[in-house]
Specification:
One of its GO terms (cellular component) is ribosome. This protein is an alpha+beta fold. The longest helix is centred in the last third of the chain and has 11 residues. It starts with 9 loop residues before the first helix and ends with a helix.
Length: about 70
Amino acid sequence: MSKGKNKTHSGTKKRFRVTGSGKIMRERAGKRHLLEHKSSRRTRRLSRDQVLAPADAKRVRTLLGK
C-alpha cells in the first residue's frame, strides 16, 4: 500500500522563498508597525531580504518539500 504524499508546510511556504541558486531567503522582523520612531536608515535595512543560516535552511527545505 502507498504511504501517500508529503504535504508542504503552509506557514513555511508563506515566509520563505528559494532563489534560483538554491539559497533560502527570509524577511527581517520589525517592519510591520510602529515605524514612525524608527529611522529611515533602519527601515531601509529592514526592507532587504536576508539569506537564511545553513542550519535553519536544512529544516526549512524539509518543510517546503525540496
